[in-house]
Amino acid sequence: MSADKPVQPAPKPKLSRSRARLEAVQALYQMDLAQTDLANVIEDFKSHRLEDTDEGAEAGSDLEEANPKHFAAVLKGVVRRQREIDPMVDTQLAEGWHLTRVDSTVRAILRAGTFELMELADIPARVVISEYVEVAKAFFEGDEPRLVNGVLDAIARKLRPGQLAER
Known about the structure:
Elements: E1 15-16, H1 17-34, H2 38-48, H3 54-58, E2 65-66, H4 68-90, H5 104-119, H6 125-139, H7 144-159
């Protein structure tokens, strides 16, 4: 009689809001440039991009999967509230600059961050700002992360007074 070890179920993957934010920015970028439909983008990302590769899981990787609910909530929220988000961001940009003149990736970052500040009150403002600054750093090495920080900080101070330390 052999003492077979019981088969242990595979551990559930960690669902990451951080990774969902990065993926949401990429999806918003795709939607902006290719004029892709929201439902198609969500389905495409869910089936092809949100999950880790099999190799990473087999190697015992600690990489986290993007939280699909957070991903979809950010995309749907940005699309639903874009007419409110864009003017709010415009007022925080330097005089003479409008969101339409900003790099498409930065525009996606600012829209997603602003949406989270508007609707996801369970996430502290400083966390939202920090997370989207990190997303900006994933794409840019120049001034863009500072721009993201400044714009989202100003918006957070208007939308969530008292959540951030006084300057």
